[in-house]
């Protein structure tokens, strides 16, 4: 991130929806135009603020799904049933509509293309969002750093960026993608549905001796379980970076 970007990070900016894509029946990607956007690193997030006509405001955090691209940022929102903000951003928020955005936020859960260590990404559900930004940043930088992604989803229909991930796993040398399904597996899948356990991380991750940088993102319980597994397998806790998608209302 450019140094000049830092002073503007906590400024609220008015963004407008440029385009939107449906990822799954319950998730939508928003491409926002944010004039004056200072740039960001893969893994960072923004605060989004909505203001009603009567002045009531609601603010939530959302990870940025793609590397810096001028004034554009991409977010992918999962609908939380009965939620205040996410259903609005998925079902109501339309092209050209304004929303306030502040960021980028976060300096620890980031991957820089200059990094030389292998990378393990472990995503639970919408936790794929900042990890996808890292996969895309790797591609954009032409990096050959070995990346492994373990992506836990409920069912095959819940995979975000499914076509792109298939393409990248085929075309991006050194990127391996493995799925773990918790409720329903694709036809012919070798394993029954299950939550990620030691065997998944051991088989599809990196040995600790290779000193990988590990990034774990998803619901709080998922993140804590996976981080514990990584440490139990011998990974240095300082190399296990976590991002919890807990409620952020305020
Ligand atoms: C750093 C960070 C990055 C995030 N990035 C993303 C992202 O990229 N995509 C995304 O979809 N979400 C992301 N979130 C979660 C997001 O900030 C909101 O919490 C989520 O959209 C729900 O907001 P809501 O207003 O719809 O629900 P609320 O009205 O806040 O909550 C409704 C109900 O759902 C529960 N709830 C709220 N949030 C969650 C949650 N995340 N998981 C399970 N239950 C919840 C609440 O406790 C409450 O009972 C991120 C959170 C953090 C902290």
TrEMBL record:
InterPro entries: Cbr1-like_FAD-bd_dom (IPR008333), FAD-bd_FR_type (IPR017927), FNR_nucleotide-bd (IPR039261), MRET (IPR050415), OxRdtase_FAD/NAD-bd (IPR001433), Riboflavin_synthase-like_b-brl (IPR017938). It comes from the Bacteria. Residues 10-111 form the FAD-binding FR-type domain. Pfam families: FAD_binding_6 (PF00970), NAD_binding_1 (PF00175). Its cofactor is FAD. PROSITE patterns: FAD_FR. GO terms for molecular function: 2 iron, 2 sulfur cluster binding; oxidoreductase activity. Keywords: 2Fe-2S, Iron, Iron-sulfur, Metal-binding. This is Oxidoreductase. It comes from Phytohabitans flavus.
């Amino acid at each position: 991130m450019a140094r000049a970007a830092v002073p503007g990070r906590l400024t609220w900016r008015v963004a407008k929806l440029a385009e939107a894509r449906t990822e799954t029946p319950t998730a939508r990607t928003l491409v926002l135009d944010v004039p004056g956007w200072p740039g960001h690193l893969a893994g960072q997030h923004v605060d989004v603020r909505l203001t009603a006509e009567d002045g009531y405001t609601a603010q939530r955090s959302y990870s940025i799904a793609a590397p810096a691209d001028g004034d554009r940022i991409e977010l992918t929102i999962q609908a939380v049933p009965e939620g205040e903000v996410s259903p609005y951003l998925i079902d109501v928020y339309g092209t050209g509509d304004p929303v306030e955005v502040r960021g980028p936020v976060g300096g620890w859960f980031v991957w820089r293309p200059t990094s030389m260590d292998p990378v393990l990404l472990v995503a639970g559900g919408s936790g794929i969002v900042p990890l996808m930004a890292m996969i895309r940043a790797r591609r954009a930088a032409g990096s050959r750093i070995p990346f492994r992604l373990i992506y836990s989803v409920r069912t095959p229909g819940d995979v975000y960026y499914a076509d792109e991930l298939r393409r990248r796993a085929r075309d991006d040398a050194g990127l391996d993608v493995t799925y773990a399904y918790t409720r329903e597996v694709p036809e012919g899948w070798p394993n029954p549905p299950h939550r990620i356990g030691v065997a998944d991380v051991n088989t599809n991750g990196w040995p600790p001796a290779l000193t990988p940088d590990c990034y774990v993102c998803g619901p709080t319980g998922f993140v804590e379980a996976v981080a514990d597994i990584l440490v139990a397998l011998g990974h240095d806790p300082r190399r296990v970076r976590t991002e919890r998608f807990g409620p952020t209302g305020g």
